[in-house]
Specification:
49% helix, 270 residues, mainly alpha, 3-stranded mixed β-sheet, globular
Length: 270
């Protein structure tokens, strides 16, 4: 037998950071009951029915689903279509990533409601639009408080937001969105990498998704065949790494069970 283990998917410091974030979401956040009850959402149109909506009405319908799955249906959101990101350019049935692109979505907190914008090009790829909306909604949820500040460097804000979206059940959507299969040139790849330098990369999203699934006791055998092709090998390695973290995963499961018994009272503006 080969005497050495395969290299872990993530560096130990990043793994520790994710365990710390999970513990914080499940023990210190006002939304912790929703985090504890969230389910891993499959990549399926059945989970996000459009009801025949098109254009901006479709985006609003998808946002309503995202808010419901996030346990935040009362969150007041003004959704704004934007044509300024230039992140994508339609080519036949695909939307290749373009160089020098800007954000596919933005979040801004207001006094009585928050504002989320989205790239209208994403109306042609609903799964990616869901990923963008989930990330921006996670920003809003993080804005509405915890009993103590989040652990770690404040500069990790966007990574924490990605992690939060994964812990609301959107990990497979984030993984599909972050996969680089649509990057059509070295120039676009360079811009893509710069754009996401403060966000989770695909490996990190996969580990966060696997950690969420392990806490929720979801069988990896149900996830891997349905994962995006680019994500499946990383998810498999993440589950193998987590099998060696039984004590820490068990502690988070206990925290989740305690959080699930609590009343959700996030105090969103009405």
């Amino acid at each position: 037998m080969w005497p050495f283990r395969s290299k872990p998917l993530l560096e130990p410091a990043m793994t520790d950071w994710m365990f710390e974030q999970a513990d914080w979401l499940l023990t210190a956040h006002r939304h912790r009951a929703a985090f504890a009850k969230a389910q891993l959402l499959p990549l399926s149109e059945k989970v996000f029915p459009s009801g025949g909506a098109r254009g901006h009405a479709l985006a609003e319908q998808l946002l309503a689903h995202v808010l419901r799955y996030s346990g935040a249906p009362r969150l007041q959101v003004r959704l704004v279509a934007s044509e300024e990101s230039a992140r994508y350019k339609r080519s036949g049935l695909s939307l290749p990533v373009q160089p020098k692109s800007t954000a596919a979505g933005t979040y801004r907190r207001g006094e009585h409601a928050c504002e989320i914008t989205y790239d209208v090009s994403l109306l042609g790829v609903p799964a990616d639009l869901i990923a963008v909306l989930a990330h921006e909604v996670a920003h809003a949820i993080l804005d509405f408080g915890a009993n103590r500040p989040p652990p770690g460097d404040p500069a990790f804000k966007e990574m924490r937001t990605d992690f939060t979206a994964a812990f609301l059940g959107f990990g497979l959507y984030l993984a599909q969105f972050r996969a680089d299969g649509r990057v059509a040139s070295p120039e676009a790849a360079h811009e893509w990498k710069k754009l996401f330098i403060y966000y989770m990369n695909l490996r990190e999203i996969c580990f966060a998704t696997a950690l969420f699934s392990a806490i929720r006791e979801v069988d990896p055998g149900l996830i891997l065949p349905r994962a995006p092709a680019a994500a499946a090998p990383h998810l498999k390695r993440a589950f193998a790494d987590l099998a060696r973290e039984k004590d820490r995963v068990d502690a988070l499961r206990a925290a989740a069970k305690d959080a699930a018994s609590r009343t959700l009272a996030p105090g969103y503006p009405n």
